[in-house]
Amino acid sequence: MPELPEVETIAANLRNGSSQIPSILEMEINKAHVFWHKTIAEPSVEDFLAKIRGRFFTSVKRRGKFIHFPLDQGHLIIHLRMSGDLFLRPGSAYQDPSYPSDQHTRTIFHLENDWDLVFHDTRKFGRIWLLDDPQQLFQKLGPEPFDQSLTAESFFLMLHKRKRILKPLLMDQTFLAGLGNIYTDEALFRAGISPKEISDRLNLEQAEKLLVSIREVLKEGIRHNGSSIDWVYRGGDFQNHFCVYQRSGEACPRCGTAIKRIVVGQRSTHYCPICQPLINF
User: Fold this and answer.
1) Digit-coded pLDDT (tens) for 143-155
2) Are 186 and 208 in contact (CB under 8 A)?
């Protein structure tokens, strides 16, 4: 599943454009086609197609793992889920083999000047909303990792309030928005904290180190345009800088011990048993 750095990269590409692809800002949506009706979470497909027509993109934002498009009227919100991708391409590119196969295209927004915003989703788990108020979706999300109001002290209190195993807690979007399997494993390794640690056992210094590590790992992931660990994701190279994720059996970059793979909270988890002990057990 795309995590914060991958979603941020996609949003930035659409917002800023490039030498070959224009920015989506101020583009008008002439019409849309929905090829998998379950992709549209709200409103009905019929209402969605009617309401999206003629709208303009005024901004491109990210909230957690959601891509948020404020429009001149309403808000278009997309969650990529397990295998979604979102990109701008020329309207004439339907048969171009360099683009993903059209059999997995779930929704196309036909824009002005013959450009298409394409939502491609192999596993069909991604969802699209058109809402008057985005807080309808966002109100249950936890704080953003980069939120300036998220201090070491407030993070420490959050950890102690929940009293849960750290790995699944950090991936809980109601606790902290944006982290998934990759960046949780990498942040815990950088902080030297076991993924099996209980959150309320961390002291203030350890909580601060973990928060700093989360931010450092996410910033590094964004600098590398995210991670390309599946054919679905394109362009990122942070996978070349993993310390523990998907490196089971390989030497820890710090101590040389073999990286171990375990299951924590029903999720595959990678860590160094020497560098990440249960420090407060």
Assistant:
1) 999 999 999 999 9
2) no
